[in-house]
Amino acid sequence: MSFIALWNARPLVRRLLFPATLALVALPALMGHGYQVDEQSARRLGDAFSGGAAEARDATTAFYNPAGLVRLKQREYVAGFSLINNQTDFEGSGFTTDGLNLIPISGGDGGDPDSNIAIPHLYLALPVNDTSVFGLSINAPYATGTDYERSWVGRYFATESELYGVNLTGSIGVVVGDHLSLGLGLSLQMAEGKIENAVNAAGICALVAAQGGLELIGASSCEALGFDAPGTATDDGLVTVEGDDLGIGFSAGLLYQFTEGSRIGFHYRGDIEQRLEGDVTFNFPDYTAAVLPLADPNLRARTVGGFLDLTTPEAASLSGFHQINQRWSIQGDVIWTRWSRFQSLTVAVSDGPDIPQPQLWDDTLRFALGTEIRVNDALLVRAGAARDESPIPDETLNLNFPFEDFAAFSLGATIKLSERLGMDIGLQKTLAMDVAINQGSLTSDAAVLQGNLETDIFSMAMGITYRPGK
C-alpha cells in the first residue's frame, strides 16, 4: 500500500535519533564553527586566539603547538576557567496536520533556554633538559546545555541537551636546530552526554489514518484510540539518548624562530575516531502502541542500545608572531578544519534498521589577528578579532546547528602579581547570529518549524600562571 512506501525511508526516526546522538559530541547553539570550543585559555581569549601556534609564551602552548614548549626554560603551571554565556531567542511557528489540513502546533518560544557553561583548563610545562620540554594539558573541548520547555513549539526538533567532554594531552617539544623545534602530542578524548526530543504521536497517527493504516488494527479513528487533536502536547512521546566514548588522537607542530621576537608556527591536530555507545529510550502513552509502529517499527516504547561512529575532523593552523619593539607585538593565524568529513553519518540501532542522515558540511577557514602592548612591568593588555566560516550549508541547517559565518572581538590583560605569579583575564563578544529556520516536513516528520533563531554569545575567562623556578 502507498502508506508503506511513504514511510519506508523512516525520516521521522532520522529526525529524532540522529540530531540527538550527534549532539552528544556536538556543540549546539554555542559556536559557529562546527562543534569546537575555542575557550581553552584566558590569555588566548584576550587576543581572539590569534597566533596560538607561534606565540608560545606560556604553558598553554602544550595544547596549541607543543613545538613552542622549548621556549619555556622553567616549570610553569597555568590553571583557569572560561565562562560562556549563550542567549538564544526563537521567533516563529510550527505546524502539523490532521491528514488533510494544516494545524498550528501549540507552545511558546521555548521559555528560557539560555545557558552559562563553565569550562576549566590546566596546563603544565616541565623542562626535561636543555633541548626538550614535556607538556600536559587538561581541558574541555565540548561543554554545552540547552533546556527548552517540553511543550514549546519546536519540541519535535529539540528540547534538552547536556554535554561534557574532557581532553587529556601529553606532549613533548624538542630543539632540532638553531632556529627550529618540533613537537608531538598524544590525546585521550572523552565525551558523554544526554539529549531529549519530543515525538509528535498525534500527528503521526493522523498521517497513518490518512493513508488507511488504521484499518490494519481495526480502528475507526485516532480519537477512538484515545488521541487528542494534533497540535497539542497531550499525546507527545519522548525520546532520550545517552552515550559516551573514549578516543585517541595525535598532534604535531613545528616552530621556526627567525629571531627572538619573530617566529612562525604550524600545528596539525589529527582526526579522532569515536564510537558513541549508549541507550535510546522511547516513552509513549500506552494507547499509541498499536498505531505508531505502523509508521516505523522503531516508534515503540522501550530502551535499546545504539551507537554512532564519529570522526572528529583534523585541523591545521599556521601562525605568525612579531615583536615590533619592547612594548608592542602583533600576531595572526589561519586555521583550516576538515569539516567535509561530515557528508553523512549513520546511527546504528541494535533492534532496528540503521538511520542515515546527510550533513554535507564543507571545509572551513578561520582568520584571526591580535596585538599586545606592555603598559608597564606589571601590566600587559591585548586585543584581537576573528572571523570564522560556518561549515553547514543551507540545505542541512537545523535547530541543533543554527550557525552562519561569524565575527568575534576580544580584549584581555595579564597582571603580574609577583615574580612567580600572574593573572590573565580575557573577554570576547561574538556578533549575534540570526538564522532562518525552515525544518521538517508534514508528509515525513508530521511537523514543520519555521522562524528565526538568534544566538548571542559572550565569553570571559580568568587564569593563573605560576612559575616556581628551576
From TrEMBL:
<keyword id="KW-1134">Transmembrane beta strand</keyword>
<dbReference type="Pfam" id="PF03349">
    <property type="entry name" value="Toluene_X"/>
</dbReference>
<dbReference type="GO" id="GO:0015483">
    <property type="term" value="F:long-chain fatty acid transporting porin activity"/>
</dbReference>
<dbReference type="GO" id="GO:0009279">
    <property type="term" value="C:cell outer membrane"/>
</dbReference>
<dbReference type="InterPro" id="IPR005017">
    <property type="entry name" value="OMPP1/FadL/TodX"/>
</dbReference>
<keyword id="KW-0732">Signal</keyword>
<protein>
    <submittedName>
        <fullName>Outer membrane protein transport protein</fullName>
    </submittedName>
</protein>
<keyword id="KW-0472">Membrane</keyword>
<keyword id="KW-0812">Transmembrane</keyword>
<comment type="similarity">
    <text>Belongs to the OmpP1/FadL family.</text>
</comment>
<keyword id="KW-0998">Cell outer membrane</keyword>
